[in-house]
Amino acid sequence: MRARYQILVIPYIISSDLIVAVFQRSDDDSWQFIAGGGEDGEEPVEAARRESFEEAGIVSESEFLKLDTVSSIPKDIFRDHRDKKGFWVIPEYCFAVELKDKTIRLSSEHKAVKWVSYDKALELLRYDGNKTALWELRQRLGQNISSFLEK
Protein backbone atom coordinates (compact mmCIF):
# COMPACT_ATOMS: atom_id res chain seq x y z
CA MET A 1 0.00 0.00 0.00
CA ARG A 2 1.26 3.48 -0.83
CA ALA A 3 2.61 5.44 2.13
CA ARG A 4 1.64 9.05 2.70
CA TYR A 5 4.88 10.54 1.34
CA GLN A 6 6.79 10.91 -1.90
CA ILE A 7 10.56 10.84 -2.54
CA LEU A 8 12.80 12.65 -5.00
CA VAL A 9 16.35 11.52 -5.85
CA ILE A 10 19.01 13.53 -7.68
CA PRO A 11 21.70 11.31 -9.23
CA TYR A 12 24.89 13.32 -9.70
CA ILE A 13 28.53 13.17 -10.71
CA ILE A 14 31.23 15.64 -9.80
CA SER A 15 33.69 16.38 -12.58
CA SER A 16 34.88 19.93 -13.09
CA ASP A 17 31.36 20.93 -12.03
CA LEU A 18 28.17 19.35 -10.76
CA ILE A 19 26.51 17.16 -13.43
CA VAL A 20 23.03 15.72 -12.74
CA ALA A 21 20.76 13.21 -14.44
CA VAL A 22 17.33 14.54 -15.41
CA PHE A 23 14.60 12.21 -16.64
CA GLN A 24 11.88 12.81 -19.23
CA ARG A 25 8.62 11.25 -18.11
CA SER A 26 6.82 8.95 -20.55
CA ASP A 27 3.34 10.16 -19.63
CA ASP A 28 3.68 13.95 -19.96
CA ASP A 29 7.16 14.63 -21.40
CA SER A 30 8.16 16.74 -18.39
CA TRP A 31 11.71 16.63 -17.03
CA GLN A 32 12.31 15.80 -13.38
CA PHE A 33 14.55 13.81 -11.08
CA ILE A 34 13.68 10.29 -9.91
CA ALA A 35 10.38 10.46 -8.05
CA GLY A 36 8.09 7.92 -6.50
CA GLY A 37 5.92 6.95 -3.59
CA GLY A 38 6.92 5.20 -0.45
CA GLU A 39 5.35 1.95 0.60
CA ASP A 40 3.77 1.36 4.02
CA GLY A 41 6.42 0.47 6.59
CA GLU A 42 9.23 1.79 4.38
CA GLU A 43 11.46 4.64 5.55
CA PRO A 44 11.95 7.47 3.02
CA VAL A 45 15.63 6.59 2.42
CA GLU A 46 14.60 2.98 1.70
CA ALA A 47 12.03 4.26 -0.79
CA ALA A 48 14.72 6.46 -2.37
CA ARG A 49 17.00 3.44 -2.87
CA ARG A 50 14.17 1.27 -4.22
CA GLU A 51 12.84 3.91 -6.63
CA SER A 52 16.38 4.69 -7.83
CA PHE A 53 16.84 1.02 -8.70
CA GLU A 54 13.37 0.57 -10.25
CA GLU A 55 13.44 3.75 -12.37
CA ALA A 56 17.13 4.01 -13.27
CA GLY A 57 18.89 0.76 -12.35
CA ILE A 58 20.96 2.61 -9.74
CA VAL A 59 22.64 0.38 -7.21
CA SER A 60 24.92 2.61 -5.22
CA GLU A 61 27.30 1.87 -2.42
CA SER A 62 27.32 5.60 -1.76
CA GLU A 63 25.21 7.09 0.97
CA PHE A 64 21.96 8.67 -0.09
CA LEU A 65 22.33 12.24 1.12
CA LYS A 66 19.11 13.46 2.74
CA LEU A 67 18.43 17.04 1.75
CA ASP A 68 16.47 19.53 3.85
CA THR A 69 14.17 20.38 0.94
CA VAL A 70 10.64 19.10 1.46
CA SER A 71 7.92 20.00 -1.03
CA SER A 72 4.17 19.58 -0.63
CA ILE A 73 2.17 17.98 -3.42
CA PRO A 74 -1.66 18.03 -3.58
CA LYS A 75 -2.99 14.58 -2.68
CA ASP A 76 -5.24 14.61 -5.77
CA ILE A 77 -2.17 14.06 -7.97
CA PHE A 78 -1.91 10.51 -6.58
CA ARG A 79 -4.66 8.06 -7.50
CA ASP A 80 -4.07 6.05 -4.30
CA HIS A 81 -4.71 9.09 -2.07
CA ARG A 82 -7.52 11.00 -3.84
CA ASP A 83 -10.38 9.58 -1.79
CA LYS A 84 -8.59 9.41 1.55
CA LYS A 85 -9.77 11.76 4.27
CA GLY A 86 -7.93 13.79 6.89
CA PHE A 87 -5.06 15.26 4.88
CA TRP A 88 -4.58 17.48 1.84
CA VAL A 89 -0.95 17.33 0.76
CA ILE A 90 1.78 14.71 0.45
CA PRO A 91 5.30 15.65 1.61
CA GLU A 92 8.11 14.95 -0.87
CA TYR A 93 11.43 14.14 0.83
CA CYS A 94 14.53 14.80 -1.23
CA PHE A 95 17.78 12.87 -1.54
CA ALA A 96 20.89 12.93 -3.70
CA VAL A 97 23.25 10.12 -4.63
CA GLU A 98 26.71 10.42 -6.15
CA LEU A 99 27.42 7.94 -8.93
CA LYS A 100 30.79 6.75 -10.20
CA ASP A 101 29.68 6.78 -13.84
CA LYS A 102 26.74 7.77 -16.05
CA THR A 103 25.27 4.28 -16.41
CA ILE A 104 21.47 4.51 -16.19
CA ARG A 105 18.92 1.82 -17.09
CA LEU A 106 15.60 3.53 -17.79
CA SER A 107 12.30 2.04 -16.74
CA SER A 108 9.15 2.48 -18.82
CA GLU A 109 8.26 5.50 -16.65
CA HIS A 110 10.86 7.53 -18.56
CA LYS A 111 11.66 7.87 -22.22
CA ALA A 112 14.97 9.71 -21.91
CA VAL A 113 17.72 10.70 -19.50
CA LYS A 114 20.20 13.54 -19.93
CA TRP A 115 23.33 14.28 -17.93
CA VAL A 116 23.44 18.07 -17.73
CA SER A 117 25.01 20.99 -15.94
CA TYR A 118 23.34 22.80 -13.07
CA ASP A 119 22.18 25.67 -15.33
CA LYS A 120 20.81 23.33 -18.01
CA ALA A 121 18.96 21.31 -15.36
CA LEU A 122 17.27 24.49 -14.13
CA GLU A 123 16.08 25.14 -17.69
CA LEU A 124 14.72 21.63 -18.16
CA LEU A 125 13.14 20.86 -14.77
CA ARG A 126 9.41 21.42 -14.57
CA TYR A 127 8.79 21.44 -10.82
CA ASP A 128 9.99 24.09 -8.38
CA GLY A 129 10.65 21.45 -5.72
CA ASN A 130 13.15 19.77 -8.05
CA LYS A 131 14.88 23.11 -8.63
CA THR A 132 15.03 23.89 -4.92
CA ALA A 133 16.50 20.46 -4.11
CA LEU A 134 19.09 20.95 -6.86
CA TRP A 135 20.02 24.37 -5.47
CA GLU A 136 20.42 22.87 -2.00
CA LEU A 137 22.61 20.05 -3.32
CA ARG A 138 24.87 22.52 -5.07
CA GLN A 139 25.18 24.58 -1.90
CA ARG A 140 26.01 21.50 0.17
CA LEU A 141 28.69 20.46 -2.30
CA GLY A 142 30.24 23.91 -2.13
CA GLN A 143 29.83 24.75 -5.80
CA ASN A 144 30.16 28.34 -7.01
CA ILE A 145 26.68 29.65 -7.84
CA SER A 146 27.60 33.19 -8.79
CA SER A 147 26.62 32.62 -12.44
CA PHE A 148 23.15 31.48 -11.32
CA LEU A 149 22.68 34.46 -9.00
CA GLU A 150 23.64 36.97 -11.70
CA LYS A 151 20.77 35.91 -13.96
Please report the distance between the alpha carbons of the first and last residues. 44 Å
Shape: globular
| Cα gyration radius (Å) | 15 Å
CATH superfamily: Nucleoside Triphosphate Pyrophosphohydrolase
- What's the structural domain tally? 1
The tally of helices reads 4
Describe the structure.
By secondary structure, this protein is an alpha+beta fold. The chain has four helices and seven strands; from the N terminus they run ββββαβββααα. The protein has helices at residues 44-56, 118-124, 128-140, 146-149; strands at 2-14, 18-25, 31-32, 34-39, 65-74, 89-98, 110-117.
What descriptive keywords fit this protein?
alpha+beta; Nucleoside Triphosphate Pyrophosphohydrolase; single chain; 151 residues; 4 helices; seven-stranded mixed β-sheet; disordered C terminus
Set down the secondary structure blueprint:
Blueprint: E1 2-14, E2 18-25, E3 31-32, E4 34-39, H1 44-56, E5 65-74, E6 89-98, E7 110-117, H2 118-124, H3 128-140, H4 146-149
Parallel strand pairs: 1-6
Antiparallel strand pairs: 1-2, 1-4, 2-3, 2-7, 5-6
